[in-house]
Amino acid sequence: MDADTFREAVEEAKGTELDRLGSSKLLVALTDAELDRESVLRVAAHSEHAARETFRRWADSEDDAGAREAFDRVREQEADHYERVVASLGDDDFDPSDGGPMHMYLRGLEDTASRVAAGLVGRGLVSLRTHTQIVGFFVNEADERRADLFRDLKRETGEEVDLGLRLLEERCEADEDWERARAAAEYVIQIAYDDYADSLEGMGVNPRSVC
Length: 211
Description:
Shape: globular
Strand content: under 5%
CATH class: Mainly Alpha
Helix content: over 70%
Number of strands: 0
Radius of gyration: 17 Å
Number of helices: 9
Number of domains: 1
């Protein structure tokens, strides 16, 4: 297996979950159906903060020098994302929440390949779909400035996915290495999907239909 076939395999195995996470219901689930600008920005800020903290912890604990450098680079990028979103929110007293099921799982990972696969590739594939929906939300709000902000964040998140794929290609030698990495990437997507589905079902919305 190589990086391209790895990504294809993950996206194929979790195609249904990723399609549903990429639907217009995603923001309904994330905001508890509070579809206004402030709520969407707050959700995004919480997410960027959680990612920053996850990669900060990994950068502090990772033994692999190359991966540690990559995690620290992503931490800096996620910190920048957080600051840009909070600036757009315009709330000087914003107090971010931390964690959530996906990041609780990520922070429990200890081996390098699983961290890279789940944190950079799996989480990144979910985040790309989140950014797409947020871009669409602000386009519909005729707020091109904020739509452009999230276009930038989406592009940079895509670069994180590419970074993760390169790191995996350098570290996965045997088939079992790739399979372990694939399992971690797919599991983090499943966690994100389950959280999304639970949120919708709690509101009486069917998560299985895609719109």
